[in-house]
What we know:
Blueprint (H helix, E strand, L loop, with lengths): L1 H7 L7 H4 L8 H13 L3 E6 L2 E6 L3 H17 L5 H14 L1 H21 L1
Antiparallel strand pairs: 1-2
Amino acid sequence: MRVLDALWRRPNGASVRELQGDFPSAAYTTLMTTMDRLHRKGVLDREKTGRAFVYRPRYSREELETGAAARAVGTLLGHGNAQPILSWLVDTVSEHDAGLLDELERLVQAKRREKEHDR
């Protein structure tokens, strides 16, 4: 995530050398390996510029966070009983910001109307 944060601050991307200043305690080769692994996993795009690669995030922060949340919740819901995850979500949302409960309710109602309209 720290590598992605550093790259999201650079809209034109960056080489390993250009990012090295953001990671003073990491060896150049460690940062290079990390960025290469993120590229192989499909998280970063890269383009050869001269002798170096310039890396760019393939996804925005929002896209990455939404995808991670969707995979996690999908996995939890795929195990059968959804009640524990739903209870946890409501509890966590209310502890974080009670106003978000209203937003959650609004989203549920909007989804219900959408589903009824599709019938």
